[in-house]
Amino acid sequence: MSNSCFSCNEKGDEFHGYIICNSCKKKLRLFTDETVRKYVMKFTKSKYEKEIRNKLISLEKNTIKQKIKLLDILTKLE
User: Fold this and answer.
1) Distances from the Cα of 74 to the Cαs of 35, 36, 57, 70, in angstroms?
2) Among 12, 32, 36, 62, which is 20 to 30 Å from 52 by CA?
3) pLDDT score of 70
4) Among 41, 65, 64, 39, which residue's Cα sits nearest to residue 51?
5) Would you state the torsion angle of the CA atoms of residues 13, 16, 20, 24, taken in this order, to the nearest 10 degrees?
């Protein structure tokens, strides 16, 4: 398996199922534990978790739609 960052191809480590280098990881501006706690306090843990899961589902659906469109273009170019 390759240890190249998915974004820049530099050497990276596994993070949530993806290989990412430290530089690209910093650019993601990930939430700190404190920030997550603040959102949990603002909502509830279960509501916040449900919101995040719904966003992941929506993101995955949009990614699939875009991939289908691009694959369709490629087949039309053949």
Assistant:
1) 42, 41, 26, 6
2) 12
3) 98
4) 39
5) -130
